[in-house]
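Objective 1b of the project was to move from sequence-level analysis to a structural picture of ligand recognition. The entry below was assembled by the postdoctoral researcher (A.K.) and checked by the PI before modelling. It contains the amino acid sequence of the target and the SMILES of the bound compound, guanosine-5'-triphosphate.
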Amino acid sequence: MKNGLIIGLQGGFYTVFADGKSYLCRARGKFRNQKRAPMVGDRVTFTINDDGSGYVQEFSKRKNSFVRPAIANIDQALLVCAAKEPDLQLYLLNKFIALMEHQNVTPIILFTKTDLLNTDEYEQLLAVKKIYEKIGYAVFLGEEKKIIDEQELIRLLADKITVLAGQTGVGKSTALNTLSKHTLNLETNAISMALGRGKHTTRQVTLYPLFDGWISDTPGFSSLELDMISVEELTWDFIDFVPYINDCKFRGCLHINEPGCAVKAAVENGEIFQSRYQSYTQFITEIQEQKVIYKK
Ligand SMILES: Nc1nc2c(ncn2[C@@H]2O[C@H](COP(=O)(O)OP(=O)(O)OP(=O)(O)O)[C@@H](O)[C@H]2O)c(=O)[nH]1
Ligand SMILES: [Zn+2]
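Corresponding predicted holo structure:
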């Protein structure tokens, strides 16, 4: 019995990575009877047959799992967000952050296209960067061919499963490319595979080795919606609100119109950033409207 990590799934065959090698495995029949299945990202035990193929025997308890894309045990998400072209959209960034926090995935923020900003805009972006850093997130700035402090970013990728997320055209491929060019332990093949994104019409969920960690670049991650989060849960996914929640007068306070709301007080005295609160109220409305649609 060997221990490995599922890094791919195609046509019912799992690619299991162990000790620097990949093995093609099927899942044992018992999984089907138990109505559960191993997923990409699962840490598994597996056996190898004489012909080199194998069977996934069991998978470990998951830290988290997503349905679409089907992937488990994501440690962190590199949220790529253009500072310009398209204009910076904190609403979208805050949505990604909430979705990731909800699944216990640590967000890392990368603002790209900073070379397109004029001096004033750049100053504004630095202020935004400070906001997210104060909340506790790592924030990086990217230019056409450079990521500032990229060694620090590469360090964060080590030993972790990271997903890439961001709207189309924000510069995800470009960022991966830049990272690949400036690192010494260049894994060209992995990167060119990762950069094969968009070339295939149906792309499988795959983990690519990158900087001693694993990275997944599946388009599905960029189109997740809030439908898996309830209004009561959302507040806990804004980690900057959490320290205040217990001081709200009413339990289950949604921080909208309730009297004695500690979150709103923190927004008013500047401890919680206005833009974060604004996104929060928008998401509450969106979730409530979704609920109405489902009930019909
Ligand atoms: N000036 C400038 N252009 C950039 C930067 N990053 C990306 N671009 C350009 O933006 C366009 C889109 O970049 P991509 O890296 O393909 O974006 P993507 O997020 O991978 O897009 P999808 O594959 O559609 O999801 C390309 O023309 C890039 O050259 C940047 O930091 N500065
Ligand atoms: Zn409140």
